[in-house]
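Hey, I'm writing a tutorial for new members on how sequence and structure tokens pair up, and I'd like a real worked example in the thread rather than a made-up one. If someone can provide the structure for the chain below, I'll link this post from the tutorial.
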Amino acid sequence: MRTLATIGYQGTTVPDFLAALEEGKVEIVVDIRAVASSRRPGFSKSALAAHLATRGIDYLHLRGLGTPAEGRAAARAGRHRRMQTIYTTHLRTAGARAELDALVELVRSGRRACLLCFEADPAHCHRSIVAARLARRLPLRVRHLAPPTDD
């Protein structure tokens, strides 16, 4: 059975984030943010990819698996069930289905992948929905990595 990790970077530092990935033996981070920019230093797409490369970890951005704007607004407002409903609907789109298929193949290849998003709590993040969808399609153990936070 393969293991799929997930991680959120809310409230953490780049060094702690990288240490959590190394501890989880992650080989590739799959960024499933719709918008791969961040106000948190080091977590925008280019900077993040560069930091990961220093540790021998690959980076892949699957924008189509990101949460639509309406879902992100619901999450920021603490309306997590609404975000989940919006996101589940989004997963029916052709773009999201194609990227989910690509993710299945990546995980099936045996690479130790980790889904990335902002939210620290996996129960409040769409990455848990993606992980659950993957687990329906192949034998999978999901491990939520939790780097230390400053919150």
